[in-house]
């Protein structure tokens, strides 16, 4: 578990990357960070408009294949040109807030039959990653909370995120992994950083 100070630093680093990369299109160099940021972790950077709180970009590296510092830099750069949206414009930098999700390792959910998933997934705790052949999709733990989904709705949207039909999660051979996320975000652009509590 990361401290509030480490979470704030993660957001500050992501914000610095977003600001510099948007204005210069060059990868920022970050040299000052704690030893814990050398751990291999997955991470996502989310950009939301302020004060409307509408999604403006969200990209991450879900698998812990690189140091957290590198995952922060890569995800923050990528979030500025999320293919679902136009590239971020420097004029927007004062009108977005930055959110960072630091992921735990993925854990395969054991399910004898698909219905077992319904009792083994907890809204507000579990992020989900689905694999099925060449198909894959991920939803962060805050997403079903924001949309007030139940577990079955969550699995349906996860399936569609992976490019499958809504009932894709029931197919034989599907593998669903859970993970937890520590979420930190700016309250206002370039402002105070807080830890998000999904259980409020």
Report on this model:
This protein has 200 residues and is an alpha+beta fold. The chain folds into 2 domains: 4-104 and 181-195, 2-Layer Sandwich (Glycoprotein, Type 4 Pilin), CATH 3.30.700.20; 107-179, 2-Layer Sandwich (Dna Ligase, domain 1), CATH 3.30.1490.150. It is 27% helix and 24% strand. It has a 5-stranded antiparallel sheet, covered by helices on one side.
Q: Name the CATH superfamily assignment of the largest domain.
A: Hypothetical protein ph0010, domain 1
Q: Using the coordinates above, name the CATH class of the largest domain.
A: Alpha Beta
Order of helices and strands: HEEHEEHEEHHEEE
Measured on Cα atoms, how large is the radius of gyration? 17 Å
Overall morphology: globular
Short description:
This protein is α+β, with helices and mostly antiparallel strands and 200 residues long. The protein has 5 helices and 9 strands.
């Amino acid at each position: 578990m990361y401290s509030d100070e480490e979470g704030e630093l993660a957001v500050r680093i992501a914000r610095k990357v977003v600001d510099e990369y948007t204005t210069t299109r060059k990868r920022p160099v970050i040299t000052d960070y704690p030893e814990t940021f050398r751990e291999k972790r997955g991470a996502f950077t989310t950009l939301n408009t302020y004060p409307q709180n509408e999604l403006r970009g969200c990209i991450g590296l879900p698998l812990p294949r690189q140091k957290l510092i590198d995952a922060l830099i890569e995800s923050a750069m990528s979030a500025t040109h999320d293919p679902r949206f136009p590239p971020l414009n420097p004029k927007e930098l004062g009108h977005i807030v930055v959110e960072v999700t630091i992921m735990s390792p993925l854990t395969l959910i054991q399910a004898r039959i698909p219905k077992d998933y319904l009792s083994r997934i907890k809204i507000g705790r579990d992020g989900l990653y689905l694999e099925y052949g060449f198909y894959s999709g991920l939803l962060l733990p805050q997403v079903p909370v924001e949309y007030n989904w139940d577990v079955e709705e969550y699995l349906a949207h996860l399936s569609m995120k992976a490019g499958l039909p809504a009932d894709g999660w029931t197919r034989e051979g599907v593998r669903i992994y859970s993970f937890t996320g520590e979420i930190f975000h700016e309250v206002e652009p370039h402002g105070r950083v807080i830890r998000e509590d999904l259980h409020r």
